[in-house]
Write a structure and sequence with these properties.
Strand content: 5-15%
Oligomer: single chain
CATH class of the largest domain: Alpha Beta
Mean pLDDT: 91
Helix content: 40-55%
Low-confidence stretches: none
Strand order of the largest sheet: 3-2-1-4-5
Shape: globular
Length: 310
């Protein structure tokens, strides 16, 4: 079932890759300007107000695009449906477990914890302060080993576990250098919530090597990897015709949902100024090459464009 769903998604993305498989930011023109003038004309007819509306509600654009791209599907199409395996009943946890954890983060931690069953020892990978491990120690009474590379987070997490007399021990280690590999064992349940890029890949490799009994993980930020081209982990994905760069993977987290008009205004200014700076450097240097800009103090956005350029 999962394999068939993957193959359908892969075929869909491969078939439409001419319309998404590129980085739009450094481009001076539409990549299909010569081959699909009808699409260019449609996009050129969209004003700023309409664009803002489509960014908030992408499906509103569907009725205009679908006549030109019949294979295009709505975002709520069954092809994109994700099975909901979470339990919607919320256990009555004591308040100290969620104290100091923001609402959305706590929701993710508590829902993830309900997928972890049994009483075998747990290895919490890239644990931070060990919020997940602390909940599992309370919920399932498992002995928890929490691995984290920042000593300050290990100390904070150990203090919280000791205060509540939980069987949770922290180990400071850099998982990417192999320091934590000896902690991965056969009779164990390895868990990881939000292990970025190569961090979760290294865990998978170790779990396979050690034949660990159980693995439950929810990774993120796939673009944080040393490989320039993404290396699929399954045999099925390895046969895909799509070759995804780090920039392709980063597009998954490119859309930001921000709260507050001020933050939205600053985000718009940053995009505008980055594009304007690129136009300026192309003109001054007589080049068509995009110049990557580093990150900068956001306070600069409250100054002038001249200050930004200098």
């Amino acid at each position: 079932m999962i394999k068939q769903s993957f193959l359908k998604l892969d075929a869909y993305l491969t078939g439409l890759q001419d319309y998404w498989h590129f980085s739009a930011f450094p481009m001076l023109d539409y990549p299909w300007s010569g081959s699909f003038p009808q699409l260019v004309a449609l996009l050129e007819s969209i004003d700023d107000r309409q664009l803002a509306g489509y960014l908030q509600n992408p499906d509103d654009l569907y009725s205009r695009l679908q006549p030109l791209l019949p294979e295009l599907r709505l975002l709520n199409d069954p092809l994109f449906a994700v099975a909901d395996s979470t339990e919607h009943t919320r256990p009555d946890y004591p308040g100290w477990l969620s104290n100091g954890i923001k609402g959305r983060k706590w929701s993710q931690i508590s829902q993830f914890s309900r997928q972890v069953k049994g009483d075998i020892p747990v290895l919490e990978w890239c644990a931070g302060k060990g919020h997940l491990g602390r909940l599992l120690a309370f919920q399932n009474h498992n002995p928890i080993t929490s691995v984290e590379w920042q000593q300050s987070l290990c100390d904070a997490g150990q203090s919280l576990a000791k205060k509540r007399q939980l069987a949770q021990q922290f180990q400071q280690a850099d998982v990417l250098t192999g320091e934590a590999d000896p902690l991965v064992m056969e009779k164990q349940h390895a868990v990881s919530l939000h292990a970025c890029g190569d961090l979760h890949i290294h865990l998978i490799e170790q779990v396979i090597k050690k034949q660990t009994e159980q693995l439950t993980f929810s990774p993120c930020c796939y673009h944080l990897t040393a490989d320039k081209i993404y290396q699929p982990l399954s045999e099925t994905a390895g046969h895909s015709a799509l070759k995804l760069s780090r920039q392709d993977l980063k597009s998954v987290v490119a859309q930001q949902v921000v709260s507050g008009d001020r933050q939205k205004r600053l985000n718009d200014i940053e995009v505008h100024w980055r594009l304007s700076f690129d136009c300026l450097q192309k003109e001054l240097l007589q080049t068509r090459a995009y110049l990557t800009l580093p990150s900068f103090p956001k306070a600069l956005l409250n100054k002038s464009f001249k200050d930004f350029c200098q």
